[in-house]
Amino acid sequence: MGQVIMPQLGETVTEGTVARWLKKVGESVAKYEPLLDVETDKVASEIPSPFAGTVAKILAEEGATVPVGAPVCEITETSAAPAGSVTPGGVAMPVSPISAAPQAGDGQAAATPTPAAPEAASPAGNGARYSPAVRKLARTHRIDLGAIKGSGRGGRVTARDVIAHTESGTVAPPGAPPAAAAPAGQTTAAPQAAPAVLAPAPTPAVKPAAVFAAHPQPLPVAPPGPDDTVIRLSQMRKTIAERMVLSKTTIPHAWSMVEADVTKLVKWREKEKAAFKAREGVNLTFLPIMIQAVCGALREFPMVNAVWAGDSIIQRKHINIGVAVDIEDGLIVPVVRDADRYSLAGLAATVNDLVEKARSRKLTMDDLIDGTITVDNTGSLGSIASVPIINPPQAAIITMEAIVKRPWVVEDAIVIRSIMNVCLCLDHRVLDGAVASHFLQAVRRRLEEFSA
């Protein structure tokens, strides 16, 4: 009898919800055949069976939220489990864990799928096992996992435990090797006193990547009254909150806004939108036009297409545009990969497809990772000016506000024109005001001089 456990579908994902069972008790299932659908705060994933057999017992009903690593069903095997798949308490899912920064409902974060691997014993040699996400955090911050008390199932160390440990101020400075645990049954000898002539080694400077912002203490809140409504946080809302706090406490935000005279663009769209819909099958909106303008400006000023990496800045070659989409539970940011290679019709179709997938919760993890800059269509909700929050680790986010008719001066005459505000929010560690302003002017120029 083998147990199938809830897989970790993202580095910061700690639980999943069973959306639908594809097999019932008594039904046979082949190895790698789809077994159930699991939903997290952002994606729905089809989980395959790790081995062949018959479903003997379902331990988590549809709609149940299950911690990562907890069993969801039992299968009577008809063949031996694949080598390396057995873990304490069950069998690991053959799905690739995702190495990702937490993605906000603002969207999102860059990540790279990595091959699945069984949990390895800790470097301390104490027999404990840690998830890939925990091991990666430990390597990044050079933490001795044996010194952390786990809060997870069975005392396991979780990613949250590691993050809390780094923020507690007890992390050894970079370059200091973790203390090795003594083998079982042996005591650690007291260290010999160092010769008096030796001066203490200087403490290495802490790199910016290892610095964590302290969590502010929450303000006291009066308990709810009899007429108040208490709204429990969904996993998506929790993620959005965490990402927003992370962005505002670790990124030095700066912003700039320009006014774009898009009268020519508005007239062209009004004339072409019916034929475009008939020809392409999707509506012609201003969003793909804005994405085209951003792509052109990024080719002119590629430094904006960059991320902060602690002790370096990485300038990305591929232009992957995140598109903020408002859904029922919050905000999500799917990504148009290599957006600069699309025609206007291709961008319109791709954006329309991503929006539909987002609102029907059919996005995959691949749809949400590797964004290099985000475009936010705040104008669709009537906003005329806004300062967005950057989607880390990106260096910039740009908004397109509502297009409004305003009196405008043209050659010393006052005329009525269609004006749109465009706001750029930037990471001042990566970009200086001059580069950001030149980029913003390039976007405005392309909008004002638009030609299909």
Brief descriptors of the model:
452 residues; alpha+beta; OB fold (Dihydrolipoamide Acetyltransferase, E2P); Chloramphenicol Acetyltransferase; 6-stranded mixed sheet; globular
List the helices and strands and how they pair.
Blueprint: E1 2-5, E2 15-21, E3 28-29, E4 34-39, E5 44-48, E6 53-58, E7 65-67, E8 71-77, E9 86-87, E10 90-91, E11 98-100, E12 111-113, E13 120-121, E14 129-130, H1 132-141, H2 159-167, H3 235-250, E15 253-261, H4 263-280, H5 286-300, E16 306-308, E17 313-315, E18 321-323, E19 325-327, E20 330-332, E21 335-336, H6 344-359, E22 373-376, E23 396-410, E24 413-427, H7 433-448
Parallel strand pairs: 18-22, 22-23
Antiparallel strand pairs: 1-8, 2-4, 2-7, 3-6, 4-5, 6-8, 9-10, 11-12, 13-14, 15-24, 16-17, 18-21, 19-20, 23-24
Helix pairs in contact: 1-2, 5-6, 5-7
Question: What's the short version?
Answer:
By secondary structure, this protein is α+β, with helices and mostly antiparallel strands. Among the domains are: 2-94, OB fold (Dihydrolipoamide Acetyltransferase, E2P); 238-448, Chloramphenicol Acetyltransferase.
